[in-house]
Amino acid sequence: MRDTTTLDPVLNRLDAGLDASLERLMALMRIQSISTDPDYAARCREAAQWLVADLQGLGAEARLAETPGHPMVVGHIGEGAPHLLFYGHYDVQPVDPLDLWDRDPFDPAIEETGQGRVIRGRGASDDKGQLMTFVEACRAWIAENGALPCRVTFFFEGEEESGSPSLIPFLRENAAELTADLALICDTGMYDRETPSIATQLRGMLREEVVIRGASRDLHSGLYGGLAVNPIHVLSRVLAGLHDETGRVTLPGFYDGVPETPPEVMEQWAGLGFDTAAFLGKVGLSHGAGEQDRTPIERLWARPTAEVNGISGGYAGAGFKTVLPAEARAKVSFRLVGTQDPEAIHESFVAYVESLLPPDCTAEFPMGDGAPACRMDTTRPEFEAARAALSDEWPQPAVFAGMGGSIPVAGYFKEILGMDAMLVGFAHDDDRIHSPNEKYDLESFHKGARSWARILHALADTGA
Q: Angle formed by the axes of helices 128-145 and 442-462, to 10°?
């Protein structure tokens, strides 16, 4: 059994100081740090300065670091091993449309709901509430024990919601300062309200656009139909052939670098009791698609995909226009796992499309950019230590989860700084991030801070 002599007083302080912690969070949430709108540049700077001052209040050496865009916040505190880098972002999404909010989005408040008490306001869940769970855990540790149990670097970004244009250059220019033993990211969610998770694999992405061109202009279908090639027919064959009858992607070499999920992780996932019908029922569906020889949760978290995101061509307005279109377009995205190579898949996609072109048709590929997947080394002792710590706080044991989406910063930490990242968050699917009436459960904030206190305690014991 782990010694909790130094931990228990920290947890008690977090309980007793919840109201003060909420006031600090709401003060940060009142700052309108919308990074996408130049009119709010001063407010973004204000949020960064607020965080610098708060970290300095903890005793950290903290500064506002300029970039060509919104500033970064960097702070250092503590000694010993391991050295942890904690990442979050202080910028938020725009609030439009305002008329769909039930209250001023920058006037946060505690509200009672059918699911319990929530913190309502822009940035509550994404990402100010999540960011402050870690800061509050550090504050309680220092107040009770005089210092943190290990060394921590804080790294807060102000452009995450606007594409992070300054992030990669900043990481490269400040690599020596930011490199640590392990990165911590709190911008994810729980598996469900009782089951915390550590995201240990993030799918990459390849975005493609294909344009099939035929005749030099749209053609009258009565004059040319049956003789002239129709680009929509060609494109339809291309898209239909991307999958076989079992749901597998047919591109040559597509599955190169796709790993099998370790048995112990599959066992954790099986224990979650994932209900496909309930999951799809929320969006009016009932039957799972994709690779039929894989479990539903594997398809969501650990398998690559090819999805058609949009098709256009010909006339689709009111009434009817009998034309053979001169061109047809489609946008296709590939979610990647393991060590799949985006460039190799792009080349395979191009070759596949060109192999299906009949005479008189050409293909163009205006887009073909991507990023690889990111997978963490869960054999490192810190991951199991953190999983056990989370399990001590929540009703159900924590699981190592995959993520169907992508969090680019985790990949950048791996690529540029050579660090694994541990993604632990306490958001829920109904938090309405990026939407009106965003919220963060009060339980997520309170138990999130307690969870980070437990993780700090557990990671210090690993002495990485």
A: 50
What pLDDT does 194 receive? 96
Residue-wise pLDDT for 144-178, tens only, equals: 999 999 999 999 999 999 989 999 999 999 999 99
Q: Distance between CA 104 and CA 109 in Å, rounded?
A: 10
pLDDT in tens, 288-308: 999 999 999 999 999 999 999
DSSP of 8-69: HHHHHHHHHTHHHHHHHHHHHHTS--BTT-GGGHHHHHHHHHHHHHHHHHTT-EEEEE--SS
CA dist., res. 128 & res. 204, Å (int)? 25
CB 324 within 8 A of CB 221: yes
Residue 19 one-letter amino acid:
D
Distances (CA, A) of 292 to 114, 279, 355, 373: 37, 17, 27, 22
Residues 6+ apart with CB under 8 A from 268: 399, 400
92 half-sphere exposure, CB direction, 13 A CA radius = 32
Contact of 32 with 45, CB cutoff 8 Å = no
Read off φ and ψ for residue 450, nearest 5 degrees: -60, -35
pLDDT digits over 56-106, tens only? 999 999 999 999 999 999 999 999 999 999 999 999 999 999 999 999 999
